[in-house]
Amino acid sequence: MGLAKRIIPCLDVDNGRVVKGVQFVDIRDAGDPVEIARRYDEQGADEITFLDITATHEGRATTIKTVEKMASEVFIPLTVGGGIRELADIRRMLNAGADKIAINSAAVFNPDFVGEAAAKFGSQCIVVAIDAKCVSQPGEKPRWEIFTHGGRKPTGIDAVEWAIKMVGLGAGEILLTSMDRDGTKNGFDLDVTSAISDAVHVPIIASGGVGNLQHLADGVIKGKADAVLAASIFHFGEYTVQQAKEFMAAQGIEMRL
Amino acid sequence: MPISTTSQSKSTVAVIDYGMGNLHSAAKALEHVAPEAHVIVTSDPETILSADRVMFPGVGAIRDCVGEIRRLGLDQVVSEAIQQKPFLAVCVGLQSMMTRSEENEGVDCLDLFQGEVKFFGDQLKDTDGSVLKVPHMGWNQVAQVQSGHPLWNGIENNARFYFVHSYYVSVTNNGLIAGQTDYGFSFTSVIAKDNVFAAQFHPEKSQHAGLALLGNFMNWDGQS
Questions:
Q1: What interface predicted TM-score (ipTM) does this complex get?
Q2: Which CATH number fits domain B8-218: 3.60.140.10, 3.30.70.590, 3.40.50.880, 3.30.450.40?
């Protein structure tokens, strides 16, 4: 008995539509975000993460409206990320109904932004999203680096050290995506997940690579994640969130059923 | 029936706005459970004191929250409202009503209920020795202590609610405790006294159980 591990369906939203790419390319339309969020809520999702991948100004305005609509119909926590660069962006998203804000590239360009955001809005709503890629050679001690711009730009920053620094500045949660695994359906990168989970005291959300339900369970059991995030396995109807929760509970993981 | 329609259309709930965090989730959830009610997000003392019921939400750091509450004169308003009408506090709303908090190097709170707000600590361990993450974030169970309380109506004992916090309330008078939750140890997750019900979790984000609790609040006459 105690705190449950969480399942978080993730919606990548471009200009008001849910899309899902493989390793950040090959976008495929998966539907209306509010409708999809409502379906996951009914299936027992523990939270929803909404990543705005829109690059245009008009698309951003659409995002605010979508978040507002989602927040008035779905009464579970809602994390919004993508293009968050200023305190005003955070304020706007919180006012639209987001509960937590994911900061990614802006944290790399200006780490103090995370500190300012946490001081202003509280650590509980500041999630730092980390896109990590394995940069060590086979046989070497494993090492992961932070990438920005949807995984295209290396930064030279060590992922584990970065996570420690972000938590020190006030991040209340880490959303960790493995760039090597994202969209592959080969499972989470359990090594980087457990390395970061051991290194910081805040919750870790594992992301990138889920292809089946065992991958979700492994993320918690072997990767020591506090929450697991997935997109395609839920969007295209392979599994429901409820099935995933029952599967994980059967492996002894504490779940909200 | 015109009489009940009239009385329902007059029902107002004030959501106290002190400029912190996201009050809109709370307002949206109240509108969802009580579409006939008038939900007003406000910092105006008169509006709050003339509403039929009051919700006191909150997220954020305690020093800024209590600072804003005092600056806006809402400390007096809260202190009056808790004498008068159904009053629901959530998260930092609950914490700010205690005597003192350890957060931000120590902050004197409104002292409407005696007790301390304490840090879970960076080294929190489960009974089996495993590390517990802080913030305490996610869905945890609430054991109902004042089990006949009207706000627990229709909600299973040990139902899960959504928590997100690093500090917890420790009350001086155990008679106030209305709910307890385990996270390394058993902490007070709900207090209740007369017309006041105050929860550490977020009912507005706790799906069925949370909406049931908010629905109970909107129908509550303030008797425990």
A1: 0.93
A2: 3.40.50.880
